[in-house]
Amino acid sequence: MHLYGTQTVNGKGHLTIGGVDTVDLAHTYGTPLVVYDIALFRERAQAFKETFNNVGVRAQVAYASKAFSSIAIYEIANQEGLSLDVVSGGELHTAVVAGFPRERIHFHGNNKSFTELQYAFDEKIGCIVIDNFSEIALVKEIAESRQEKMNVLIRVTPGVEASTHDYITTGQEDSKFGFDLKNGQTDKAFRQLHDHPYIKLLGMHCHIGSQIFETDAFRLAAEALMEKMIVWRDDYEFVCEVLNLGGGFGIRYTEEDQPLNPSAYVEEMAEVVLSLTRTHNYPLPEIWIEPGRSLVGDAGTSLYTVGSMKEVPGVRTYIAVDGGMSDNIRPALYGAKYTAVTANRMDESHEKQVTIAGKCCESGDKLIEEAHLVEPAEGDIIAMFCTGAYGYSMASNYNRLPKPAVVFCENGHHQLVVRRETYEDVVRLDIPLQSVEQLEKI
Ligand SMILES: Cc1ncc(COP(=O)(O)O)c(C=O)c1O
Ligand SMILES: N[C@@H](CCCC[NH3+])C(=O)O
Predict the structure, then answer these.
(1) What sign does the dihedral 303-25-295-171 (CA atoms) show?
(2) Domains 8-37+297-426 and 108-291 share a fold
């Protein structure tokens, strides 16, 4: 059994996270419940920063908050000196409410609206990562009308195909994101941006995908961008101050996953940049990265309570829990694999193979196809590991299930940071039907 971060088993045979008994958490807050090990988040954040310090590269480590966005996690990210990658007006608003320093907010997205971009200008954020030609026109229009300067990066697709799930590769040529590096689009974008009076072009950005294990893809992407930066220096005397190499560092969901230590990816990238800048006598840019999953993924654990069970003789045993694809769509969407334990009976042998099913009205709502647990009993608390990234943030109200609560645990303390939705929340946007008479009055 593989435990993560501060997880241990206490004298009662219960799983603990951050020094807190998960069975007590389940009773206090109810289930499904997402529990974050905040010490692990902090440790990961510091490891990324130290790696850059050790290799002598100035850097910004931006938390890619699409992985899990909430006011409290933004507060922790700020405490750790991270920057913040937001990808919508909603994430930006969350950052504003959290009081996140605006100069460390970077705004992403392949279809930012005029209103979202206005919001970014209103808040004087650190940088907009420009994705396409329509956005160049919008950003110029806003900057010129306000006569306000905005920092930007050009997002490029470097033509690197990382081996991961098709839905989450983003660096290949056939991608909805960014300007193509090879077919001239990136140069065209550069020409439209680099000498504009209200635009400060900081440099380039790429992100090649998510849940990537091999270092080669990161190395190739860094080389491709550096090559272009050198051309711009030689042709236009333009020097990039910033090279943003995105996120995507893989984590261990199951024993099939063999990620390197997250810092190893950073060392590899930094090595490429250091070596090419030396060879070409290029001023060393700041390197920015945007880890999401590798900061919060294995720091998050979902707790569920076992309800009904069903034996399909000779085939499988289903155990149904009180959540499912509504709080974790990843197994249904990507075929993502996870591991789980019986959190209230950790010292018993986990040898019973079961399928953990959710409670949504879909046959495909299976959280884990082949889980190994203690012989199950109704009321058991199941802890499903590594659900901290793209779990809660992709949750829905499918079947009108209320979204779970989220709790942070650290040094024996626990606190609620997102409350559980109620049935009132579930109907809060609904408007009852009006009669024809009422409609005719409008
Ligand atoms: C632009 C960008 N940056 C960063 C990330 C974070 O990726 P990950 O959570 O895999 O680190 C993503 C998501 O894939 C992204 O699209
Ligand atoms: N949501 C995806 C990752 C997408 C990353 C965002 N660009 C996942 O769960 O793996």
Answers:
(1) positive
(2) no
Catalytic residue among 206, 240, 360, 361: 361
Domain ranges of the chain: 8-37+297-426, 108-291
Tell me what ipTM this predicted complex has: 0.98
- Is residue 221 pLDDT above 80, yes or no? yes
Q: Residue 170: pLDDT band by 50, 70, 90 thresholds?
A: low
- Mean pLDDT calculated for residue range 383-393: 98
Evaluate: CB of 210 within 6 angstroms of ligand 2: yes
361 assigned to active site? yes
359: Cβ below 6 Å to ligand 2?
Answer: no
Query: Distance, CA 174 to ligand 2 centroid (Å)?
Result: 17
User: Cα–Cα distance between 388 and 80 in angstroms, integer?
Assistant: 18
Asked if 62 and 85 touch (Cβ cutoff 8 Å), the reply is yes
Atom of ligand 2 nearest to the CA of 333: 9
DSSP state, 34?
Answer: E
Among 1.10.10.10, 3.20.20.10, 3.10.129.10, 3.40.50.300, name the CATH number for the domain at 108-291.
Answer: 3.20.20.10
> What CATH number belongs to 8-37+297-426?
2.40.37.10
- Find out whether 360 and 393 touch, Cβ atoms under 8 Å: no
DSSP 231-281: HHHHHH----SEEE----B---SSTT--PPPHHHHHHHHHHHHHHHHHHTT
> Using only C-alpha atoms, what is the Rg of the chain?
24
Between CA 339 and CA 335 the distance in angstroms is 13
Cα–Cα distance between 435 and 442 in angstroms, integer? Answer: 11
pLDDT-derived band at 297 (thresholds 50, 70, 90) equals: very high
Query: Does the beta carbon of 168 lie inside 6 Å of ligand 2?
Result: yes
> Does the bond joining 331 to the residue before it have cis omega, within 30 degrees of 0?
no
Q: If you average pLDDT over every residue of the chain, what do you get? A: 95
Looking at residue 171, its pLDDT comes to 58
